[in-house]
Amino acid sequence: MIRSKHYGALAVLLAVTAVLYMWNLGASGWANPFYSAAAQAGAQNWTAWLFGSSDAGNAITVDKTPAALWVTGLSARVFGVNPWSILVPQAVFGVIAVAVLYAAVRRISGPWAGLFAGAVLALTPAAALMFRFNNPDALLVLSLVVAAYTTLRALDDDAAWWWMPLAGVAVGVGFLAKMMQAFLVLPALGAVFLFAAAAPLRARLVRLTAAVVALLVSAGWYLLLVAVWPATMRPYIGGSQHNSILELALGYNGLGRITGEETGGLGNMNSDVGWARLFGAEMGTHIAWLLPAAAIAIVAGLVILRRAPRTDITRAALLLWSGWLVVTAVVFSFANGILHPYYTVALAPAIAGGLAIGTALLWRHRTDIRAATTLSGMVVITGVLAYLLLQRDSQWLSWLRVVVVVAAIGCALLLLVVVRLPRRVGVAVGMVAVVAALAGPVAFSLATAAAPHSGAIPSVGPSSGRGGPPGGMFDAPRPGAALAESLRQDADQFTWAAAVVGSSNAAGYQLATGLPVMAVGGFNGTDPAPTLEQFQAYVAQRRIHWFIRADMPGFMFGNRSGSDAAQQIQRWVSANFTSREVDGITVYDLSSGFTAAA
Question: Domain Glycosyltransferase RgtA/B/C/D-like spans what residues (predicted)?
Fold first, then answer.
């Protein structure tokens, strides 16, 4: 009966998560058109699907490895190219991630702690944002949660040898979703297994080596495939300056994100590097709600278990979640490269797992005044932090922040004397404290789910919506009927119906027409793809019909790094072809011949 109650509660949690992540999902339209256009291309052309090309003509790839696009591309191929076929897989990833986290924590601290952890993950605003959006973060988070679960399974006395290699495979899948960000969990996974696994040291070393090999194979096969595939028979690797997948992985999407030395990138525009970043104006409402409470719970749990044997599974789990949390938080806080607030979704599983296990330990020791005081302090800090975060949007549910902080203080006082209360009353106080702690993030998550999101940089909360900096410079254009009809004219006679600088620009025209549109210069317009000479050859071969004039951030900021090939191409087209206005957009018919000497 008790077990069925737990499973019933899990079913409710997963159902609520599914509703939160799928309700009115189509309101966001194409969400991030950059990735939606690539999914469309993958649904039309298998080479585009394999390499994650932005268009079915295979001019250039997106600036990530394409694991997430393999899923959405197949979904679009089966169910048609539409917002639901692209966004529903992200929601499914979220529901599975909640279930796997529940299973991971349940093995350590029991079903109620597992349910608490799953609820915290599901109701974190950053999760409610990214599991309803088509950036690769959804698959990344799911892969890392699976890696944590399999690592914890590998610690048992009777664990099968393949649990750790399976963790390596999971991280490899995360790498294929978002490259080196997946590796931030490796120190925690490897160190915890090596320290706490029940197997003899030699066996631990062998299994850890097998996990490393599994990681290298599961992540490296794609890098090898791209490296050996003839460059003339695949799209250019977007985000690199030399058509190199290794440059993309190690530079633009690797160390460049930390150092800020990202050739072709625009750099970090947040200007908030430091310890306060995770609580700041950009990231705070995404992830900060339960961060202090999780840190306190983890430290308190480690203190309680300070004399536990080396193989104690609960301490090992706390070390795993805390290692994940600390390494990722430090990197996010001090990274000087491109770092968007929604990246913080990668912290949510660690916060949820560490908070649930640490809180369960403290609750079991609530007769100790030190544990009761710690629980009380966690509730007060969470309530005050929620008040401050909710105050940032002072016109929205202004009553909620007052209710939260008052309820938190009241519960905190009662928790100090919880041992003197009847058991049912004590449990009720604990439940109210949990509700008070979750009220802020729940409200923000509901507001996030209720708002449509589009563009490359979505945000959480009631003021969210169209993503991107002021002016929406990373959103996609929506061509008028006349322009769309012009692009469709004789499209079957050309490889690309049109070319335009920037992937987001190209995505808008491509999604509107269903035709391949070349993204000149890739995402930022700073990749040397194609070069001016290559573009001229394409025009001479009558492979591109139209050129659409557009500006990009790289143009506006003077292309601080990367190639200026896109600017050269736009100038060459302007000088040699006659322009005309269609629906207020300047276009050039490249099939009409030059108007001046090239």
Answer: 63-218
